[in-house]
Structures are given as C-alpha cells and as structure tokens.
Amino acid sequence: MARAHIDLPADGELPSLPQVVLRALEACRSESDYRDIGRIISADTALCARVLALANSALYGRPGEINSIEQALLRLGTDQLQALIITASLRQLLFDLGSDRWQQIRDFWRHSLTTALTARALSRLTGYSNNEEAFMVGILHNVGELIALRQPSDNEHQTPLDDQIEIGARLANHWGLGQMATDAIRYQQAPARDIRDAGHLVKLINLSARLALADSSGIEAAQTIFGLTSALTREICTRIGREVSSLAESLDIPLEGPFDSGDAHKRLFEQVVRSAMVEQALQTLPEQANSAELLTTALRNLVTLTGRPGLVFQQYDDRLELLAATRTAPPHIEVPLDNPQSLVTQVGTLRETDVLKMDSATILDRQLLGLLDCRAMMSVPVCYGEQCCGVYVIGLDSVEEAETYTTLVELFARRVGGLAHALQKETRTEKVAGETLEQLSQRIELRKRVHEISNPLTIVRQYIRQLQNKLQDIEGSGKVEPDLEIVREELDRAAGMLERISEAGESGASNEQDEDGVVLNSELTILCDLFEEALFAPSDIQCELTMTTASTRARATRGPVRQMVMNLARNAVESMPNGGRIQFRTAAPIWQDGRRWIELTIDDSGQGIPESIRDSLFKPVRSTKGPGHSGLGLSIVKQLVDDMEGIISCRTGEDGTSFRILLPAVKETE
C-alpha cells in the first residue's frame, strides 16, 4: 500500500512548549551569555530545528557545515538569534492547542531531551568525535512526531504519525545536517544486530532512543552495540533521568500528572504584546545625533507608552545629569555617583530597576517626586552590556502600581540602550563586550600595518626637511627646492591617506585564521607595541615583556587570543589608577595532564581583585565602579579560553594580581 505524500513544514511551523520559548525570550532580553541561551534552545526540538536550518542556509554562504547548536549560534550572532526567538514566540501564539495535545507535546519534549542527553553521554563514553552533534541529532530524531502533533485529531494526524521516521530523515537532509545525521534518524528503530557495523552516530541514536523509551531491550542492545554492561547502562539512564528532571524543574515544566500550557501560553502572549508595543513606540523616533538627544526624545515615547509622567538622567562616569522632565521645565540637577543614596544614583550604580521606599527617601527623592507630581516612582537603567548611558524615572500613584509597568519599561530601556550603543561606536575603548572577535582582530592588524608604514614615511619627511635646510646655503639649490617640496607634500598626502584608512576602513582588513596556529610571542609583541602608546603610557604604567626562546605556536586563532590579552591588560590598567607595572611572560613547553601547553602569565602591581567578587570570578557580574578585574571582561576571557580548550587561573592579593593561561601547543607533526 502506497503511503500518502507528506509535504515538509516550514521551519517555523513546529510547536514548542511555551515555557521554553518564554525562558529563551527572557534570556535574550536580559542579555544572557550566548551559551546560556544555547542551553535553553538545545532543550527544544522546534527551536533547534529553526536555528540549524537558518545557520545551514545559503544566506550564510557555506550551507551544510553546521552540526551543533553552539556552531550555529556563533554563525548567526546575537542580533539574528534574538530576532529568531522573537519570531518563534510570535508563531507560538498561532498554536492554540487543547490540554490533551499540550500534554502530548510535554511527553514528546521529555523523550527527545532524554534521547539527546543519553546520546551525548554515550558519545563521550564510546569516543565519538563530536559530542554536540550526537546531542543535536538526538534532540531532532523524532521531529516527525512533532509534525503529527500539530495536526488535528483525524486521519491527517495519523498519516505523519505513521511516517514520522521518514519525515524526520527528509527534514534532516533538508536542513543540511549531512548524510550521517540523516541515516541516524532513518535507522533509529533498526534491530540492534543489524547496525553493529553501521556508522558510530547511527548506533548512538538507535541505542539512545531505545533507552529513552525505557525499552526492555535497550539494556541488551547496549551490550550488543557497544559492549556496555547492564549495570553501567542502568547507571547512565538513572543519571540522565535526574538531569532531565532538574532541567524541567528549572523551566517550570511538571513531568508527571496532567499538563496544560495555557498559563504559559498566556504569559508568552503578554510578553509578545509588550515587545510589539515597545517596537511600535520606538519606530517613531527621529534620527538622533547623540545619546542625550536619544534619551530625551525617547522619554516622550515612554510617557506615551505608559501614560505616566517621567524624567530622564544622562549618566557619565562619575555623575548623573537631569536632561528632561514631562510636567515641568527641568531644573539643573547634577548628582555625583561616589556615594549612592537616592533612588536614581543607586539604580545608576547597581543597574537594576528599583522602586522608591518612602522610609528611605532622600531629599533628592522628594524633589523628584515633586517634579513628577506623584506619590511614588520607579527608576530603570538604560544599559547595553556593561555600558549604562542613562536612567529613566516614571511617576506612580502607589508602590504596588510598579508591577504593572516594570516589564514594559525595562523592555523599552533595553532597546533605547541598544540604540544609544549604536550611536557611540566611535568610542572604541568602551565597547569591548559588543565588539566581535573578527572586528577586534581586523582593527588591531590594520592599525599595526598603518603604524609600520607610517614610521618610515615620517623619517623620510624629516630628512627632506633637513635636506631643505642644508640646501639653503648652497648656490643653485633653488632649482631643486620645488621638487623637494613636491616630494614632501606627496608624503604628507600619503600619510593622511593612511590615517583615513585606519579610521574608516578597519573593517575591511583581512581576518584569515591561521591554520597552523598562532605564535604567542609574535602576538604579544604586536599587542604590547599598540598598548604602550594607547593604554600604558597615558596611565604611567611600565610594561615588561619576557618571552621564551622556545616555540610558542598555540592551537588557537588571532581574534580570541588578542581579545583575551586586551581584556586582561585593560583590567590591569584599571586596577592601577596611580601607575604601576605590568609584566607579560611566556614559557614553553609546559607539560600537564599528558599534554603540551604554551604558558602566558600576566602580572600587575595593582590593588588586587576585591574580595566581594573573588567567589564569582570569571562570571558576569555588575560592576560597582570599584577596582578593576570586575564586570563582564573576565567572563569574556573565560569563555575565550574555554573555546580554545585552554586553562586559566588567577592569584590575587595586596601585591597585585596574576593570571596564568595555558593554551594547547600545536603538535610538532601538525
């Protein structure tokens, strides 16, 4: 009997659990680390499918190369990822399923996640080369069933259910996941004896799907396929079960009993409506010349959006300055940030939304209430990454009313912060967290080349000037003088062109990665040369560079290495406000855990890392403008070192701070 033809759905037409989409949306709104967002996306088949399909599309020039969620996120970038999740949340509103169908989707989610986690665990245990590919195929292996669940309960529902495995294999091929992934989905139910000599990925998915179903034949299949003992297999299943339960609890998804996502669906609807309101309000903003104009004009839109009176302060490094008020002409109010006591200074320092508590109101708080003509007020920071450019204040009738407006005003403030960041792109030193590794590598490489060319041009111009002075006393030199003047003018013009290239054309610099690795000594030489003039000299910091004579070729690429060193150097400078010493040292080879490493040590004579953040070192924390080595910078360093499969450690105290980084050495045969 011939089976009916099933059209493949569009990539966005697969339902997700609203709880997962809500959590992903919240993670994007709060500018979470891309790995955290990736972990949320990885737990949902529909979101995984959309991310992988887009990353493998011809839009990105190299279809079919992505076989893990992390690779997909790196290719898409933060902005594209946020747009994808927001679009996914809008599409979820179209899936108005009954409670019985939501329960089926919950059970589907649990099975796909269990399969994926089991596949990753077995991948590590059996030595498969790509653990994340195993996870990804595991999460997608039963996507055909998800297509059936979005159909009404009739014959059209049964047809894709009967053909779900073949539909899943066709989708894997359509998404460019490769032949091995397609085969792994196609043969997921093949008898264990028939796949003993099949590809490793096929065996992983086949066994993982069996174990996720708690199939009684799964224990026997583990012995047949991989030679695993029943005790070890049961231990793996128990551990994966606990991991699934923990993740479900974190997402507020009950795994047992009746399940209805109606409440989560409603919360998602509210989030989407708020987002749409904010975007509509910001669409009417005229083009702005600077952050102050943006904050002021956006205040009018915020008042229209909320219907509440408002104030806006612009934030500088050491103070807040009132820019505008909606109910009266703004008086001159300038507030220092060195001793935050009032609501706006605390919000500007801590960068967290807060509501005024009348029992702790300062004189400034009471003045602002007078300007708003209200009995209560809420304050929200306008931030992008680590940068905070301002603070909004809206008036309320009561403290309890803040709950109505908090989410909406925070969404608005984050979007304004992003727009302000775009206006400040020329402030290069303040956008480390927003600058991509590729842009950083291009900029430093171009500046180095311009610097190398400019030096001989400057020397030649000086010699021409000296030659002109000497020729003044020689008879007949007047005939040569015009020619020398032309040469000097042309050299000046060439130097000016180089300067313009450095300022306007940095993004066009080459960014090819070193297939043979990176020579750490060479990179440090370039960076210290650049840092000396731009970073160390203005801060009265002496730089020492001590490099080993052995090979320092590390298995890494320029961009991550340079951003890692740049962040640590900037933190060191911030910790030495009165000047000091920074030392870069390399050593090789270092032997640890049976591997060869290249060692980089960066020592400074600064104030040391504050005790308040030592326990959360390398984690994103909110800076309080205290000593250096805090905030997002060290979190980025840790991510970069992890991505290069390196190791980082820190020692800190009153005599300064020392970071030790181990990068994998390139094998001598490579």
Structure overview:
The structure is a single chain. Helix 21 packs parallel to helix 22. The longest helix has 35 residues. The N terminus is likely disordered. With 670 residues, the protein is of the alpha+beta class.
Q: What is the approximate shape?
A: globular
Mean pLDDT: 77
How much of the residues is beta strand, in percent? 5-15%
Round the Cα radius of gyration to an integer and report it: 30 Å
Q: Distance between termini?
A: 56 Å
Strand order in the largest sheet: 3-2-1-6-5-4
Largest sheet: 6 strands, antiparallel
The class by helix and strand makeup works out as alpha+beta
Residue stretches low in confidence (pLDDT < 50, at least 5 long) are: 1-6, 426-437, 504-513, 621-631
**Amount of helix:** 40-55%
Q: Number of helix segments?
A: 24
Number of strands: 13
